[in-house]
Design a protein that fits this description.
Protein name: LHFPL tetraspan subfamily member 4b
Radius of gyration: 25 Å
CATH class of one domain: Mainly Alpha
Structural class: alpha+beta
Main location: membrane
Number of helices: 6
Pfam families: L_HMGIC_fpl
Subcellular location: Membrane
Membrane topology: Multi-pass membrane protein
CATH topology of one domain: Butyryl-CoA Dehydrogenase, subunit A, domain 3
Length: 223
């Protein structure tokens, strides 16, 4: 039974549009993966995971705290408060070492997935997508553990000096979470979305193969 020329042309047109759409989505996924990797670096080094609130006692120091440093600000004669603290070393604060390790592993996984984008020239697209998807799932899992473990580490000397004696595990005292911690939580959702999209793109690659290539692949699987 022969296939009509109109149906053949429609099939080719559909395949062409499908290839263009898949490539566009793949490029968007790669750009979002690179942005996610940059966000991971910001989350790791920024001292804005938690900080003092505006309702602190008058004259009390204000500041923020991250995984590697404490930045404390005191009022001065100038309109801008005098702030001290910086990233003086690559050693995390003692109470946040486990959190920093998890964020570091997450950072390694997502940057490895970025480097794996070069494999598109040497390996099949489906294989690269699957490798990147598993790396992004690992990054999201480690970041989720870090976000859960961070509040449990609040009962520390650094937190007591900045947030008062009422601080404890899952109790920030006179402080509240800041934008870096919220960005870390959003990074978990971003990793889950990127990994899911990578798995979908990997499963759709077979639909982009020519019919003769599909037949050869099917025969090889049966053998």
């Amino acid at each position: 039974m022969s296939v009509s020329p109109a149906l053949t042309d429609l099939s080719r047109l559909y395949q062409t549009e499908f290839v263009r759409s898949a490539r566009a989505v793949g490029v968007l996924w790669a750009i979002c993966t690179l942005c996610f990797a940059i966000i991971q670096v910001v989350v790791l080094v920024q001292p804005s995971w938690i900080g003092t609130t505006d309702t602190r006692h008058p004259g009390a120091p204000s500041g923020t705290l991250g995984l590697f440093e404490v930045r404390v600000c005191v009022e001065s004669d100038w309109p801008v408060p005098d702030c001290r603290g910086g990233l003086s070393s690559l050693s995390p604060l003692p109470s946040f070492q486990s959190v920093a390790v998890l964020v570091g592993v997450s950072l390694w996984a997502v940057w490895t997935s970025v480097l794996c984008l070069c494999l598109f020239r040497f390996c099949s697209a489906a294989t690269v997508y699957k490798i990147c998807a598993w790396l992004q799932l690992t990054a999201g899992f480690c970041m989720a553990l870090a976000c859960l473990l961070f509040p449990d580490s609040w009962e520390s000397p650094e937190m007591r000096a900045l947030c008062g004696d009422s601080v404890g595990s899952f109790s920030p005292g006179n402080c509240s979470v800041h934008w870096a911690y919220i960005l870390a939580i959003l990074g978990v959702l971003d990793a889950a979305i990127l990994a899911t999209l990578a798995f979908v793109l990997a499963n759709r690659q077979d639909a982009l193969l020519p019919p003769d290539t599909k037949d050869v692949k099917l025969r090889n699987n049966r053998l």
